[in-house]
Structure formats: C-alpha cells, structure tokens
Amino acid sequence: ATCLKPKEMYDKLNEYVIGQDDAKKTLSIAVYNHYKRLKSDKISKSNILMIGPSGSGKTLLCKTLAKFLSVPFVICDATTFTQAGYVGEDVESMLTKLYIESGCDIKSTERGIIFIDEIDKISEVKTTGRDASGLGVQQALLKFLEGSKVNVPTKLGKQQNCETVVIDTDNILFVCSGAFVNLKEYSIDGLIDFGLIPEIIGRLPIVSYLEPLDKEALRKILTEPKNSIIKQYEALFKMDDIELVFEKKALEKIA
Q1: Calpha distance 116→78 (Å, rounded)
Q2: Distance CA 175, CA 98 (A)
Q3: Which CB contacts under 8 angstroms, 24+ apart, belong to 33-38?
Q4: 3-state secondary structure the chain
Q5: What is the pLDDT of residues 59-86, one digit of tens each?
Q6: CA distance linking residue 245 with residue 210, whole number of Å
Q7: Distances in Å between the alpha carbon of 170 and those of 51, 193, 216, 233?
C-alpha cells in the first residue's frame, strides 16, 4: 500500500501539519510497520490511540496521512454508534463506509484505515440499567480491533434484505482518537478508570499524546502549511486581481 519510509511520511506531514512532532513520528512509524506486516504473519497488528485536546490536530494528521498513502480511509464518530437493537448506527457501518470508499473492492477495503473519533465518549457509564452507548459499543468494537471476519452490509442504513460481503478486519488499521477530558493520568489504569474496558486498551498498544497548541503554533498554522487558510484567501482575492496582505500584528490577533 505504501513504499514511503517513516522519515518520508514525517516530512510530508510537516508540509501540512504544524507542531505535534512526537505524534507525527509515532504515527509515521506505526503506519509504516502496519503496512510492512501485511507481508508477514509473524508481526501482530498495532492499532493506535491518539489522546489530545479538541483542535490539537488528531483528525488532520490522519486525513493528511491517508492522502499520500493511497489507501481507502474513512472517519467515523463513535458517538453515533449504539449497541445492536438500539436506534442509531451499528458498529458494522464503519466497515460499510470503508467498503464504499474503496470502490466496493474487498481486497482494498481490507488494507484501509478507519479513524474512530470521540472514542472517549463511549466510556462505560456505571449505572444499574443497560448502557446503550458505552460498554456494549466497546464490546462490539473489540472484535473488529482484534481482527475477525465480519458480514458487512454493502449499503448504509438499516435496509431489509440488503446484500452483505465478508470483510476480514485483521489488516485494517484502526486509529482511535479522543480528548479524554479529566483523564487523571496517561496510563492503562487511568484509561480504565476513565471507562475504557481493558480488552479495548490492549488492542490499542500504540498511544500518542498531543499537546495543546500555543499562540505561536496557531500563528504558524495560519500561514505555513501548503493549504493554510491565509494562502487560500490570498488566492481567492488574487482571482479578482486584489492583493490581500496580512500584517504580523493582524496574524497575532487572529491567533
């Protein structure tokens, strides 16, 4: 799927993502090793957990990476998933999305990347009743993360008599992400206390922590990436033969 070395992936990420060096390195090495293991059955799969505040670049990192890997890539929101039998999306829907994104090619689907955002929002809620959004969803996710053959509907939505295909999730890379607000400590025990079941944590062996962005990083984000918002507005105005100029003080104010 990719012949890029980790350093090449890291350099490409640098063109679009400012800061978060540790996360970029972790992600580059993990993705490189993941696609290397497709050629060997001796290396076990290593899914990734990204922890960081909202707006720190977790989704952008994965989106950017998927662009130059040329593999099917989908973003799913864990908060939309519900336990089977409840109103909402079944966990299988993320595989359906990846299947559609791959052009309905099973082999391509089985080498794709699924980015599950807001994973912290399906933490187990300690209640006496049934927990439709937490524990049940985590248990449903588990079989995908560890690798299994799943009957997947070929179309989204709960349609009766919908055709299904069998997808093996063993080689699909799962990147889970969340802000984990009020997480007491960045450790396995801390994540368990937060409400993730140990089996889920065990299937996310690579953990990457993202720092909050400071003012200087935000200023760089405005101007330095290839597709920065400032460059986009300069290009828009240029189409009307207008030169748009941002003074340093203005950029600092915006940041």
Answers
A1: 6
A2: 14
A3: 34/173, 35/1, 35/2, 35/69, 35/111, 38/1, 38/111, 38/171
A4: CCCCCHHHHHHHHHHHCCCCHHHHHHHHHHHHHHHHHCCCCCCCCCCEEEECCCCCCHHHHHHHHHHHHCCCEEEEEHHHECCCCCCCECCCHHHHHHHHHCCCCHHHHCCCEEEEECHHHHCCCCCCCCCCCCHHHHHHHHHHHHCCEEEEECCCCCCCCCCEEEEEHHHCEEEEEECCCCCCCCCHHHHHHHCCCHHHHHCCCEEEECCCCCHHHHHHHHHCCCCCHHHHHHHHHHCCCCCCCCCHHHHHHHC
A5: 888 888 878 877 889 999 888 887 555 5
A6: 32
A7: 23, 28, 41, 43
Q: How big is the chain, counted in residues? A: 255
Take residue 170 and report the two structure tokens written for it.
Answer: 């063993």
Q: What is the pLDDT of residues 181-200, one digit of tens each?
A: 888 888 889 999 999 999 99
In angstroms, the CA 155 to CA 99 distance is: 9
Amino acid in position 27: L
Residue 83 CB-half CA count within 13 A: 11
Convert the pLDDT of each residue in 4-29 to its tens digit: 899 999 999 998 888 899 999 999 99
Structure tokens at 136: 């049940």
Residue that is written with structure tokens 């490189």 in the block:
32
In contact, 15 and 205? CB cutoff 8 Å: no
